[in-house]
What does this fold into?
Amino acid sequence: MNAINTKDLYITDSMAEEAERTLKRGGRVLVTAAGKITYGKNIVQQFTPVFWNTSWFKMRPPHTTGLYIENDHPLFRNFPTDYYSDMQWWDLVNLKQVMLFTDFPADFQPIVQSIDTWFLSRKIGMLFEANVAGGRLMMTTMPLDADENHPVRAQMRKALIDYMLSDDFRPKYTVDPAQVQELFTKEAPAVDLYTHDSPDELKPKNKN
It folds into this structure.
């Protein structure tokens, strides 16, 4: 998605110089980062939940177990939802990237939080807002490149833009610009926490 600059909102797909300048002027920036994230790219998200036990099956994807959605957030006035993922989220979630928020403030919570596999429980998500460098940022890995075949994407894009142009757009968390930039550049270490043993039911039976 190419950068779009209007009087009140700058829309781009990266945290390039113009985005940073807009934030420093106190402006509003929407970053649509679908497919561009490196910090979290090793986490495979599908709409269906994690494969039984990722520890036994060597991190076989998917690695997520659904969504936790801040469904009373004002942006959802134009995209009504429950606090969990139902079928309207399929096109926004299935095989789409997540962001890893390990280095964000401890109390930070994304608006749309993906639920990690239970034995890791990393803080990951697809949509967040924050005060950054004096301005207000909204960033998502959900695809917003809408056409007649993707009405859900179109409605999510409308909901985000309408919210960001309203007086309700007042993020409660503050995040350092470098932490946002690292979502595009940093890579998480490989996960090697799975067991090298077999489940009891697959072990040889002791006949003694």
Residues 151-164 form the longest helix (14 residues). The mean pLDDT is 88.
